[in-house]
Design brief:
The complex is a heterodimer of chains A (about 375) and B (about 350). Chain A is α/β, with parallel strands linked by helices. Chain A contains 16 helices and eleven strands. The longest helix of chain A has 16 residues. Chain B has two domains: about 150 residues, PurM-like, N-terminal domain (60s Ribosomal Protein L30, Chain: A, 2-Layer Sandwich), CATH 3.30.1330.10; about 160 residues, Alpha-Beta Complex (Phosphoribosyl-aminoimidazole Synthetase, Chain A, domain 2), CATH 3.90.650.10. Chain B contains eight helices and 13 strands. In chain B, the strands form three sheets. A seven-stranded mixed β-sheet of chain B has the order 8-10-7-11-9-12-13. Chain B has a four-stranded mixed β-sheet with strand order 1-6-4-5. In chain B, strands 2-3 form a two-stranded antiparallel ribbon. In chain B, helix 1 packs parallel to helix 3. The radius of gyration of chain B is 22 Å and the shape is globular. The chains are: A alpha/beta (about 375), B alpha+beta (about 350). Chains A and B meet through helix 1, helix 2 and helix 15 of A and helix 7 and strand 13 of B.
Chain lengths: ~375, ~350
């Protein structure tokens, strides 16, 4: 396929692998965190670690929108569907995330006890608006999740709903912010105090950066002395970014570099940013699965659009729910553990019966390793 | 002296009429629907018997063998899609299930569940397509049934077809017979049917030159069997796609499979649409493709036999069978790495971010 195959060329990958092997200093190690689930997916799907020297280690980050969604937020959505009888629209992956009482949105849709929820999978946020237009006598709620990539469409949706004067539409907003999560990881005791998670640099988000630009990462380079290379989601993008990080580290540099220059600029998409700023404001704190409460890490709907805020409209009260005790998603999302370190990985917790959120989305570290890479564990065993 | 007037029944209003509850009640309306719509299209000597079931001649007397039966319920939305509709799909799907058992398909039985309010014009289109497919395949629909459910309790039309076929003595294909060293062959490009359907979904409609590959595979199968190659197993990779079918075989045969991504045929448009939606063509449904496992020494011979058939012209040897206690299906990626091609968990869902 034109424009894609070029970024999946095995010969170029071997060339880049050779360049990385030549560039690395054998006396040191390189711990690089790929923040995004999209990168995690590419690394597993294309077996990128096979091309890397042993002293370059990839650490999976928390950039998977489904994975970081805490149980309590899914419970709110299920409550809306089952107790309030709304039509709940959501992106696909979210349906399978395990929630309280053995439920998930998918199970609530099929039925819980004598009730079942009208829960609909949508491909586009605009489909939720259509559901509201088509069902004027019912409440329609869009369960909005995702990082900065999916936020502008939600903002558009809310503005559109206001322009049309829709009275039966609202959004349960779970949009989260990338830079706050990176700060949180860099400030975590494992990284700062104990050094149990060595982190030398970051592969910065692809799609998120098309919106926010590369500028927001500059403080990480300046204050924390960690190089950041923004990279696309194709395998060659990731390889190239690794080479760029290795070179920065060797030279003792800590800068923001942009490998994904075909889509990302320093300032990002200003129009989208303005739209988001008009509709949303920063929440003082938001719970992330794995990271806990993270200050200034999420968005809520501004007062001017309160009529479209499901939390206000239905007077929802958030109740945090602890994860399953055996589940290591928290440690995995912080880069402290690998999927294989979790006792229930591949036994109790599989993509068919996920216990933790990292096993749900194809971008989750556990699902990616289970789906594409676990033959490597078998070879060792 | 008055005469009893000759019965007159107003013909079905195919153009504007709709299925109503009386069409399933067992009365005159039902008889009329069957006669004017179904019998007219499927007409054959067995249906003309007019009894509750079809009385069939004894199985082919030329040799001893076994009877094979397969049944398949067809539900698809939309009912009409590029390259086909639920009617021809219902014929092809069941013929293929029979054919990949190594059997020559002989007869089909069909049962329809119709939703109240369904346009008769659409029903006629579906039945005509089904009849044409059955005729082209030389497999008659010999008996059938119709039920009507209330509006909202069906999705227009559901069609269940059951197929009967005959396997000659000595031929026993099974997914449990793959052996280390065997070759894996695929009859053509993957993902066409699933993406053709996807491109028509109401909430996703996109313009793509993709047609369903729905087709009856029994002539291809016959040519493959006639080649004399030592075929262990045939399967049609429908729901769940090629990946699912191969995982089934690996599990049944207790072996590992290794694929070569570079030689698996995928049409550009399908590849692009999958990329766009975040789907993997390996998991997308096919309705006119088959996978064969055969002895390595016979692989080339089987490949030429397949390529000589219209439905096998893009056939390829896509991998081989090896010993693996974990029964993994693995793939050498075009990129140069190796990865698992796992069972699909749940539905294939697009990525969010």
């Amino acid at each position: 396929m034109k424009f894609i195959d070029e970024f999946r060329d095995g010969q170029l990958a071997r060339g880049l692998g050779g360049a990385i092997a030549k560039a690395v200093d054998p006396a040191r190690s390189y711990h690089l965190m790929e923040f995004c689930g999209g990168h995690t997916h590419a690394i597993s799907r294309y077996g990128l670690t096979d091309f890397l020297p042993a002293n370059v280690r990839m650490v999976h980050g928390p950039g998977c929108p489904v994975c970081v969604l805490p149980i309590g937020r899914i419970d709110l959505a299920i409550q809306l569907a089952l107790d309030r009888g709304v039509i709940l629209c959501s992106y696909g992956d979210t349906l399978r995330v395990p929630a309280s009482n053995g439920l998930s949105l998918l199970k609530a849709k099929a039925g819980a006890g004598d009730r079942s929820g009208d829960i609909r999978m949508v491909y586009s946020a605009a489909d939720a608006l259509k559901a509201a237009r088509d069902n004027p006598n019912r409440e329609v709620v869009f369960f909005a999740i995702g990082f900065e990539t999916t936020t502008p469409p939600t903002a558009l949706l809310i503005r559109q709903a206001q322009a049309e004067g829709l009275k039966n539409f609202s959004v349960l907003c779970n949009h989260v912010l990338t830079p706050a999560a990176i700060t949180h990881i860099l400030e975590s005791p494992e990284v700062r105090q104990y050094g149990t998670v060595p982190l030398d640099g970051f592969i910065g988000p692809a799609h998120v950066s098309t919106i926010i630009g590369s500028r927001p990462y500059e403080p990480f380079a300046a204050q924390y002395r960690k190089p950041v290379v923004i990279a696309g989601f194709e395998p060659l993008d990731v390889m190239q970014a690794i080479l760029m990080l290795v070179r920065q580290l060797n030279a003792g540099r800590a800068e923001v570099e942009n490998e994904f220059s075909r889509a990302v600029t320093r300032d990002g998409n200003l129009k989208a940013q303005a739209l988001v700023a008009e509709v949303f404001e920063v929440r003082s704190s938001f719970e992330w699965r794995g990271l806990g409460e993270v200050p200034d890490s999420a968005l809520k709907i501004r007062a001017a659009y309160a009529a479209f805020d499901a939390e206000q409209r239905f007077n929802l009260r958030y109740v945090p729910v602890p994860d399953n005790k055996a589940c290591e998603c928290g440690a995995i999302l912080r880069g402290v553990k690998k999927p294989q370190d979790c006792k229930i990985f591949g036994t109790l917790c599989t993509p068919e019966n996920p216990m933790g959120s990292c096993m749900v989305s194809s971008e989750g570290a556990c699902a990616a390793h289970y789906t594409y890479g676990r033959f490597k564990d078998a070879a060792v065993a | 002296m008055s005469e009893i007037k000759k019965n007159y029944t107003r013909p079905l209003d195919i153009l504007n009429g709709r299925v109503d509850m009386s069409h399933g009640s067992g009365g005159r309306a039902m008889a009329q629907l069957i006669e004017e719509l179904f019998l007219a299209a499927f007409d054959n000597e067995f249906l003309r018997q007019g009894d509750d079931g079809a009385s069939l001649p004894a199985m082919p007397a030329e040799a001893s063998g076994r009877l094979v039966v397969a049944t398949d319920a067809h539900v698809v939305a939309p009912l009409f899609f590029p390259g086909g509709d639920i009617g021809c799909l219902a014929v092809h799907g069941t013929i293929n299930d029979v054919a990949v058992m190594g059997a020559r398909p002989l007869y089909l039985a069909a049962s329809f569940i119709l939703e109240e309010g369904f346009p008769l014009a659409d029903l006629q289109r579906i039945v005509a397509s089904m009849a044409a497919a059955a005729r082209a395949a030389r497999v008659p629909v010999v008996t059938g049934d119709t039920k009507v459910v209330e509006r909202g309790k069906g999705d227009g039309v559901f069609i269940t077809t059951t197929g009967f076929g005959w396997v000659p003595q000595g031929l026993a294909l099974s997914g449990s017979q793959a052996k280390a060293g065997d070759a894996i062959l695929l009859s053509g490009s993957i993902g066409d049917h699933g993406m053709a359907i996807m491109s028509q979904r109401e909430n996703l409609a996109f313009d793509a030159p993709i047609e369903s590959d729905t087709a009856a595979l029994h002539d291809l199968v016959a040519a493959m069997l006639a080649s004399g190659a030592a075929i262990r197993c045939l399967r049609d990779p429908t729901r769940g796609g090629l990946a699912t079918t191969l995982n089934e075989i690996a599990r049944q045969s207790e072996v590992g499979l290794m694929l070569d991504e570079a030689v698996i045929p995928v049409r550009h448009a399908v590849d692009a649409a999958c990329e766009f939606l975040g789907l993997d063509p390996l998991y997308v449904a096919n309705e006119g493709k088959l996978v064969a496992i055969c002895a390595a020494a016979d692989a080339e011979r089987l490949l030429s036999a397949m390529r000589a058939q219209p439905l096998g012209k893009d056939a390829a040897i896509i991998g081989n069978v090896h010993t693996d206690p974990h029964h993994f299906v693995q793939m050498q990626t075009r990129f140069g790495g190796r990865r698992i091609v796992d069972w699909l968990s749940g539905e294939q869902l697009p990525r969010i971010c």
